[in-house]
Amino acid sequence: MYKEIGVFDYSNKVLEKMHPGNFLTTKNGDTINTMIIGWGGVSIEWGKPIFIVLVRDCRATFDLIEASNEFTVSVPLENDLIEAIRVCGTKSLRDINKFEYCNLTPVKGRKIDTPIIGEAELHYECKVVYKQKLEKSAIPEAIKTRYYNPNTSNDFYHTVYYGEIIDQYIYEKE
Question: Domain of 51: which CATH number?
Fold first, then answer.
């Protein structure tokens, strides 16, 4: 069952749930992946409601979002998905099928091809309207030291995706 909501009705909840994390799901062809995001949020850019997400270039999700230019964000409101969040935040699609391993249900999006996570309640369907790779030299040193590994030559930085929110709703399994 779907409950219609306004784009900002739950924006505070989205931010509250960034810790422990929200599900970012992408799909290209038959390949579906979900990962956990702890950064980002809902805003207005260019007069449009936007969900901003950050994805490192080395993640499997990066290739999928680059190919499809769409994503969903699923936010657990009441359901305890802590173990699924832990697994999806630490394991790669290259190693396991997170949907099978965590018993997560991909539910077809209403307006895009990328599914939502059926066990979470709050969902945003987004189409990428802009992206920008973070410029290493513009990141403050304290942030680089804390979030990026300066001791490796492949210090993968994030690409910031601006996804126009084209649908948002509460989904409850019947």
Answer: 2.30.110.10
Q: Give pLDDT, residue 156.
A: 82
- Determine the structural domain holding residue 51 and report its residue range: 2-166
pTM over cut 0.85 = yes
The CA distance from 105 to 123, in Å, is: 14
Residue 43: CB atoms within 10 Å: 14
Is a pLDDT exceeding 70 seen at residue 67?
yes
Distances (CA, A) of 68 to 5, 34, 58, 104: 26, 14, 17, 21
Residue at 124 is within a domain? yes
Residue (of 121, 105, 96) closest to 22 by Cα position: 121
User: Structurally, how many domains does the chain consist of?
Assistant: 1
Structure tokens at 10: 């739950």
Mean pLDDT of the chain: 94
Contact 34, 136 (CB under 8 A): no
Q: Which DSSP string corresponds to 6-32? A: -TTTTHHHHHHTTTT-EEEEEEETTEE
Contact 38, 18 (CB under 8 A): yes
CA distance 133 to 55: 9
In a domain, 93, yes or no: yes
